[in-house]
Amino acid sequence: MGLRNAWVGFFLLCSFCLVTFCEQDGFLSLSCGGRTSLRDSSKILWVPDTTYITSGKTTTISYSDGSSSFNNSARFFPNSGRRKCYRIPANNSTTLVLVRAKFLYKNYDGLRKPPKFSVSVGTAIAITINLAESDPWSEEFLWTVNEDTLIFCLIAIPKGGSPVISSLEIRPLPQGAYTNGMTNFPNKLLRKSYRIDCGHSNESLRYPLDPFDRIWDADRSFTPFHVATGFKIQLSFNKSSPVEEPPVAVLQTGRVLARRNTLTYNLPLDTLGDYYIILYFAGILPVFPSFDIIINGEIVKSNYTIKSSETSALYVTQKGIESLNLTLKSISFYPQINALEVYKMVGIPSATSSTTVSALQVIQQSTGLDLGWQDDPCLPSPWEKIDCEGSLVTSLDLSDINLRSISPTFDDLLDLKILDLHNTSLSGEIQNLDSLHHLEKLNLSFNQLTSIGTDLENLMKLQILDLQNNSLMGVVPDSLGELEDLHLLNLENNKLQGPLPQSLNKETLEIRTSGNLCLTFSTTSCDDASSNPAIEAPQVTIVPQKKHGVHNHLAIILGTVGGATLAFLLMCISVLIYKTKQQYEVSHTSRAEMRIWCAAKVFSYKEIKVATRNFKEVIGRGSFGSVYLGKLPDGKSVAVKVRFDKSQLGADSFINEVNLLSKIRHQNLVTLEGFCHERKHQILVYEYLPGGSLADHLYGTNSQKNSLSWVRRLKIAVDAAKGLDYLHNGSEPRIIHRDIKCSNILLDLDMNAKVCDLGLSKQVTQEDATHVTTVVKGTAGYLDPEYYSTQQLTEKSDVYSFGVVLLELICGREPLTHSGTPDSFNLVLWAKPYLQAGAYEIVDEDIRGSFDPLSMRKAALVAIKSVERDASQRPSIAEVLAELKEAYDIQLRFLDSSQNDN
Ligand SMILES: *[C@@H]1O[C@H](CO)[C@@H](O)[C@H](O)[C@H]1NC(C)=O
Ligand SMILES: *[C@@H]1O[C@H](CO)[C@@H](O)[C@H](O)[C@H]1NC(C)=O
Ligand SMILES: *[C@@H]1O[C@H](CO)[C@@H](O)[C@H](O)[C@H]1NC(C)=O
Ligand SMILES: *[C@@H]1O[C@H](CO)[C@@H](O)[C@H](O)[C@H]1NC(C)=O
Ligand SMILES: *[C@@H]1O[C@H](CO)[C@@H](O)[C@H](O)[C@H]1NC(C)=O
Ligand SMILES: *[C@@H]1O[C@H](CO)[C@@H](O)[C@H](O)[C@H]1NC(C)=O
Ligand SMILES: *[C@@H]1O[C@H](CO)[C@@H](O)[C@H](O)[C@H]1NC(C)=O
Ligand SMILES: *[C@@H]1O[C@H](CO)[C@@H](O)[C@H](O)[C@H]1NC(C)=O
Fold first, then answer.
1. pLDDT of 675-695, one tens digit each?
2. For residue 629, what is the enclosing H or E element?
3. Cα–ligand 4 centroid distance for 4 (angstroms)
4. Annotated catalytic, 527?
5. Architecture of the structural domain at 354-529
6. 98 CB contacts (<8 Å, ≥6 apart)?
7. pLDDT in tens, 412-430
8. Residues of the chain with pLDDT under 50
9. Least CB-packed of 107, 167, 545, 789 within 10 Å?
10. How many angstroms is it from 65 CA to the middle of ligand 2?
């Protein structure tokens, strides 16, 4: 057992190192664009930067500075988008680090155009680098990493050329350093202006003399206005006391003015701003010099005394200065200083609201594209396709991307002023926009929208509304006239009918109406449907899905014809829809026939009322309606699911569902006991599982929450996978569940798991069908992004959702949260890189230390594979089940052996 523990420890340690600074003293030294690792003369290990960045190209820059020549690797970003970032995981969430970056151009591209670009640390833009002014260029920042990732970005400037970087170094600093005399440090970033080893006239000094690898420059070039000699005296002190821990070697030298009574440093600063200054003193002389310290004419400290053998520091902040005149004026003996540091204080702007970030991430996921949206949308510079004011997202342009619907998350983008969704394959009603009260410009043109809906009337700031080239039908709502700021309304090329409401008849509003059936303010001129003929408009091309896509047929047909033939077409379409429906649904409702198809019992509404004691005890609620506890005459407990009126299915669909559910009998699927279909009631009666749902156990409050061990979690996963495997492979027809999630996995008292709620499920009837095209349904956080973007439903969509459940079991957190950092909002995006790297520090605290790493690895790997974006890369549920069984067996053996050892 001891040996096993040691191995576990070793394994954890290794995986930990993968994602953290792991060199000496926590150093991380990246050779940007480098191919190999190497150690420099100070024994510092330099590694290629590929772990931390994926974009950009690499090159080698050769140059010489007179005496010697160098070959430096570099990474550059041609035609770069808005920002290119290094993302470096930090091992400790509040760590002060030094970030040092070097930039080199040396005409490596032969264009003789040194680039100009900005550099950001965290959310703050720290400095603009202009390699035409200085080449090479070096920058140093001190920053408190508040998040779990250190983000360092290069941000292209219009016409500034390709940003280029050659090295990046991260050095942890002493805890608590560089905060004295400064309020509110966590919101400041310090950019180094000077770090001078006073009195030291040779080369700069750094690691290993400074264990934190700060570079202390010799001071000869900084003091043009006085003559003084540097002293170096072997000291009697052995450690410096300031919390910054300046190295003893630095304090051993000092500038002491022997013949005059004032010592002055004149330090030019490159920008106007607030500066943080630290002066270090060490008693290296056998006397106690005292002096006044004057900065830019103001005495900041009078009668400062240095005690022999002691070290001390003075911290000063100066607001709004452009240059620094530091003068020490003698009171007794000679003025003296040993080291000084000067930093510009850069404000760190507050981050974009988590609701906005999370909404944008969901939107990105739904597009199925990698839009490069990572970290904060606005800061340090806005993502592509969006624009910001400060940390508010005010503009979003997703034109030409296949969205298909305006998802509810758009309604969370409360600060939007401009929304451009033209040519995004939208269909149906205009919806999910009613909260966007600041919206000024809305472009929904070149889609297949069919209904104006009611959301637009809430957009009181709207100035421009572009709805041209859709398939909008019906009349233009009167309420649009209430939008007082509206000055352009484009309705061209729709199927709208007149007359236009008089409320729109005002001077300030320009309305474009050509290409509609009959759209004028006049009520009489509408007899002739062809009076307003369709004008030739660019045709939106829809790539038809491989098979039976009702929507697409509809959209293509509507898109290609004028008004006259509409009635005929509508007829054809109805037939088409009807035919398509028939493939999936049975269209009879008579009770007698139900009895023939269904093994399940048919209840009367009266029987249901008695069983539930008049719907007394609610045990669940959902968008579909409520679930009540009931007891059948034979004493059996049941869960009675009653649909709200609004959520009721057509009779066909309900019968279809009952028919489907009643055929399914499997130990890991919740059994349908019966149903009731009377008058307006649609009620399903299920077997009752008293153990609650998996979600209750993982996240429930107080009594429900139950710490599940790893082995239990695996057992639950195996059970649920068996149920799902039966649906996919065991039942005839095959069934896709469509709503796999933790709250749909129920437990009995023995903790056996069963999958429930097949309400959304689809049968795959045709022998050869590989997928079903449907309207996207499911639960946010569990939705297969590929299904979302293509609307093609396959069994792999269930595998994706099940993968999310596995990640929840491993990490003990919900698929979407709004706390923590933006990168952690989405479980899949957050957990994947950690688990891939075998970094199990994200495993649920409740099971940490009690799992066999091999078992965890198996489960983690199959979870990651299941949530692959590309559905074809995902395993089948049968493969998932096999892996989970193995993981379960390994963990069982692990528990056995540890029991035997004890
Ligand atoms: C980060 O981890 C490394 C080793 O893993 C350690 O040396 C370093 O001190 C840690 N940094 C902080 C600030 O905890
Ligand atoms: C730099 O690279 C060139 C070509 O690969 C090589 O000839 C030269 O010796 C290298 N110089 C140094 C200093 O490594
Ligand atoms: C981070 O470092 C500080 C100081 O070294 C320590 O007090 C704190 O516990 C650490 N936090 C974590 C999460 O390791
Ligand atoms: C500075 O360098 C010179 C020659 O390079 C050397 O003679 C001298 O001792 C050095 N001084 C110190 C203080 O290291
Ligand atoms: C050097 O450090 C040791 C232990 O920290 C201390 O006992 C000793 O007094 C120090 N020496 C001087 C000269 O301060
Ligand atoms: C620096 O400040 C001192 C004292 O305030 C003053 O005498 C001196 O002229 C100043 N030097 C410059 C270059 O401004
Ligand atoms: C300066 O301070 C020392 C002790 O800290 C004191 O003895 C001396 O009188 C002070 N000098 C003046 C001019 O205030
Ligand atoms: C619409 O977007 C598609 C890409 O989704 C693009 O290929 C097509 O050219 C766009 N059509 C128009 C009219 O802009």
1. 888 777 888 888 898 888 898
2. strand 625-631
3. 56
4. no
5. Alpha-Beta Horseshoe (3.80)
6. 140, 141, 142, 169, 170, 171, 172, 173, 212, 213, 214
7. 899 999 999 999 999 999 9
8. 1-23, 224-228, 527-598, 765-769, 772-773
9. 107
10. 14
